[in-house]
């Protein structure tokens, strides 16, 4: 005989708070009225009041409410629970030390309008981080204002635009073409477009690299403002021609913007500034271990060459002797891009990460990230098709080609991974690979976890050949099975109504 | 194998074209809808918009990704299929019929002649698969 599992059982689904409502239950008790009673009509005009007796608003007790949300809070998957192999996202561990430092009262409670004389510690921290990021990227101009990666991109291309205006004057108006590889993050063409550029797409080669011939062709067509390039590219391959790429763009008078999303493959080993890059954004919430996802908040510093530094957002933090101050007197600046100085709490965490690692530690983290990705590659390339031959850097891309013959596609493999207890990898990105699976283990996982992941993936590859239906129907062990994403997107139900539950019952 | 009607012309970007006089009706192919997966949103241009050959005139969003749709012929949009706003799933169900996307009055009515025939498109798909 089977037992009846009640709602608090860890495998049970949770009814909506609306469906848990019991008429008459309350979560509050008001104290006795100790002033003269005033009629509600005198306070709130009738036309602003509900007249349906709060129909449909859930009636629950405090403990009902606390347990409802606490149960659901345990369903989250987070970086503190296990490996998070989302390619392109660098979901590395966020150390407790970062959090401890960010909570030092002098940092946590500092008012953003406090005078400079009373904010010297925070200004020094910003200055030190600017200096460290300048050294790491090889690009001396740094602004920590942008709130996230795409914001840093936008800042970067606005800088390029102003630099072109200065360099070419009126003729700059004829330079409005931004070159973007077909493997780029979607934010690159979006940022370029918002900054007033038109985008031309560069093809990738069979090795996942920028097609140099096509690049030159597009440069010959004229009007090139610059190039937005991710290195290593979004397929995890290092652009070995990066110097030549930068030279080609510079020869036609353009600037090179590098998307720093994949800096976790480079920190402490090679520097974009040395490659010929003019401007880059970093993601502190990826590479420098500040919280990522769930709203972060992020921080997307913009770093650039000496030549472009005057265009950076203002104010920047400058040092004079032992005194730190905000420099607002920057006539060439593109202006402010964020209220106050950006997401300061993230700067505290990032500097804590940089200083606890030191230069050797940062290099070791990079090497471990690349080693982990290459280990996965070596162990999985027999089971899954690898579309590009070069050794990957910090992330590796596979496709579903070997499995799709059996009707098992990337989405099925990702869903099946959930049954094995892993957060799925990034899927269907980049778009140039059909059925892409992009896996980035980061340096935060050890050999044991990597082997567990490999075992799960090998097992799924075997299932795809022997019992494809098992994979196609996954996940099987979760509270809720495969969601119908298409119907959810085509006919979204955005609001609960009393008859919704009945409709769902009738449909099932 | 994808369905490829004989009477249509095809582009390398997987659009089909039906030519009637100087008006081209454009949609995406069976192969394209199959590759995209379940389509959840179709963005189309306005009537009266002008496009050059190969311009992106709209986009198709599936559960996997948003893809641009390019016009294989240049000209002025004379009609768009507004039914797709409420029923994007038609792109999956009937890509060559009810899911036509735009009708374009071609600047050069012979332009579609340069596109692939059904046979050539089938060959092209085979070469793409390898």
Distance between the termini of chain A: 25 Å
Task: Give me the oligomer status.
Answer: heterodimer
Shape of chain A: globular
* Helical/strand content category of chain A: alpha/beta
Q: Looking at this structure, what is the CATH superfamily of the largest domain in chain A? A: Type I PLP-dependent aspartate aminotransferase-like (Major domain)
Q: How many H/I helices of chain B?
A: 4
Tally of separate helices of chain A: 17
Let me know the CATH homologous superfamily of chain B. Answer: RNA polymerase II/Efflux pump adaptor protein, barrel-sandwich hybrid domain
Q: Can you name the CATH architecture of chain B?
A: Beta Barrel
Strand order of the largest sheet of chain B: 1-2-3-9-8-5
**Topology-level CATH name of chain B:** OB fold (Dihydrolipoamide Acetyltransferase, E2P)
Give the strand tally of chain A: 12
The CATH architecture term of the largest domain in chain A is 3-Layer(aba) Sandwich
- Rg value of chain B: 14 Å
Instruction: Tell me the Rg of chain A in angstroms.
Output: 27 Å
Please, what is the average pLDDT of chain A? 94
User: What is the count of β-strands of chain B?
Assistant: 9
CATH class identity of the largest domain in chain A: Alpha Beta
Count interface residues per chain for the largest interface: A-B, 10 and 14 residues
Low-confidence stretches of chain B: none
What would you say this structure looks like, in words?
The radius of gyration of chain A is 27 Å and the shape is globular. Chain A has helices at residues 40-43, 62-73, 96-102, 105-108, 120-137, 149-168, 187-194, 212-220, 242-251, 272-275, 344-380, 401-404, 410-419, 447-466, 468-472, 485-490, 500-507, and strands at 141-143, 177-181, 198-202, 224-230, 255-259, 279-281, 302-304, 316-320, 323-327, 396-399, 426-427, 436-439. Helices cover 37% and strands 10% of the residues of chain A. In chain A, helix 3 (96-102) runs antiparallel to helix 11 (344-380), helix 6 (149-168) packs across helix 7 (187-194) and helix 11 packs across helix 14 (447-466). The relative contact order of chain A is 0.13. Chain A contains 17 helices and 12 strands. Chain A is an alpha/beta fold. Chain A has 2 domains: 123-357, Aspartate Aminotransferase, domain 2, CATH 3.40.640.10; 367-488, Aspartate Aminotransferase, domain 1 (Alpha-Beta Complex). Chain B is an alpha+beta fold. Chain B has one domain (9-129): OB fold (Dihydrolipoamide Acetyltransferase, E2P). Helix content of chain B is 21%, strand content 34%. Chain B has helices at residues 30-36, 83-86, 90-93, 118-129; strands at residues 9-10, 15-20, 23-28, 39-43, 50-51, 56-62, 66-70, 75-80, 102-106. A 6-stranded antiparallel beta sheet of chain B has the order 1-2-3-9-8-5. A 3-stranded antiparallel beta sheet of chain B has the order 4-6-7. The longest helix of chain B has 12 residues, at 118-129. The mean pLDDT of chain B is 93. Chain A binds chain B through residues 186, 411, 428-429, 431, 434, 485-486, 489-490, and chain B through 35, 37-41, 61, 63-67, 88-89.
